[in-house]
Amino acid sequence: MTELTKLTLAAARDGLRARKFTATELTKAHIAAVEKARALNAYIAETPERALAQAADSDARLAKGEGRPLEGLPLGIKDLYCTQGVETTAASRILKGFKPHYESTVTAQLWRDGGVMLGKLNLDEFAMGSSNETSAFGPVVSPWRRKGSDAKIVPGGSSGGSAAAVAAHLCLAATATDTGGSIRQPAAFTGTVGVKPTYGRCSRWGVVAFASSLDQAGPIARDVRDCAIMLRSMAGFDPKDSTSVDRPVPDYEKAIGASVSGKTIGIPREYRLEGMSAEIDGLWKQGVEWLRDAGAKIVDISLPHTRMALPAYYIVAPAEASSNLARYDGVRYGLRENGRDIVELYEKTRAAGFGPEVRRRIMIGTYVLSAGYYDAYYVRAQKIRTLIKQDFEQAFHAGVDAILTPATPSPAFALGEKGSADPVEMYLNDVFTVTVNMAGLPGLVAPCGLAADGLPLGLQLIGRPFEEETLFSLGAALENAAPKIGLPKAWW
């Protein structure tokens, strides 16, 4: 039974269709794996009864030959997605006890296609963090270890629970969200594949908002093909989301194995940052050679406003967060702290409900939106955002099909190793990923090797709007060329 958890999503799908095992057997194997791996703290809530009921329904459908695209496949759901009747917390105390009476559009589409929900996955509180250390339920621990060390390693954030669960074989694939790199960075840290789709490709309805103009739903899975399978079910137009784009959803899986010969790959000179480790730079150069060997044309490009992306992002994102999080006041749902009047109720509830990182970002966001500072900070940051978008547009107009960059400035680090004294040190982990969100573009991170300390390293592909298929074909080419990193040894 434990061997069933080692299957990829595609292999499990094919095995179910061939009647090699049942959806109930597959689900029970994953439930047992989750129970044995609670030391990782990847799941906030486990839903075994619901999973087994869904699996039984899948078995009945498969027996009739009526299997749907994800029939009987056990999935993990980031606890930022509202799930009907199942507590949804965004890893925050302020949403304690909140059980939505509705289902997010993305998860509803997963259940429509036959997916099985194992539970809700841990994350940084309200998706604010790069290490999954800000969760009110405690940090997630990566299944990976450094060579010769027992130090607990972060899985990245904010989708650290999703990445850790996939890497540790606690689900076949997981939903995640990406506001400034929160799918791609944890994927790089855990040796998994993460896809941040084009803004508007997946509905945001029913996903707890952090920064509405940046947030985008996407999958984390074991390989590129599995992400393609997941994205086909997750994507699609939603009239309930005004930012959702009405475009047909391709069969992304068909892009796997497609030739990349003749594709033009841009290498942005601005991503060669001062102080970047030789290991990351060497992997980037190796990635260039892998794509060149696959037939791609490599060109140098310039994205001159890249250096302004991180500071602009950390103005735009907190500003939108301060507005979005104003709705959490203890009146209608979630935590409530009593006060002498309504103002004191708000103050006590928000003080008790929000963690330090969320409070920090609310305060920054409120400051940059305040009278006298709005033009100096927020408006200027939005102008820089436009310039960043134009940099990418010029590169694509010049014939570039995709851009190859590092995913992270370093391998994963240990719990408590960064950001405890200086939060900016933690924010710098997003240096290679935030531009994609600022420009609304799709991005894919694939594992491409191991660092000298034995931890995974990944490379990032950035694509044209709504050309995720190109990223899947290029990502598969990288995956095929790169050495297989293997699986983390089960220390838990």
Helix content: 25-40%
Strand order of the largest sheet: 1-3-2-4-6-5-10-11-9-7-8
CATH topology of one domain: Amidase signature (AS) enzymes
Low-confidence parts, pLDDT < 50 over ≥5 residues? Answer: none
Helix- and strand-based class?
alpha/beta
Largest sheet data: 11 strands, mixed
Whole-angstrom Rg: 21 Å
Q: What global shape is seen?
A: globular
From the N-terminal CA to the C-terminal CA, the straight-line distance is 18 Å
The CATH architecture name of one domain reads Alpha-Beta Complex
Number of strands: 11
SSE arrangement, N to C: HHEHEHEHEHEEHEHEHHHHEHHEEH
Descriptive account of the structure:
This protein is α/β, with parallel strands linked by helices and 492 residues long. The chain is built from 15 helices and 11 strands. It has a domain at 2-260 and 443-481: Amidase signature (AS) domain (Amidase signature (AS) enzymes). It has an 11-stranded mixed beta sheet, sandwiched between helices. The longest helix has 24 residues, at 374-397. The radius of gyration is 21 Å and the shape is globular. The two termini are 18 Å apart. The mean pLDDT is 95.
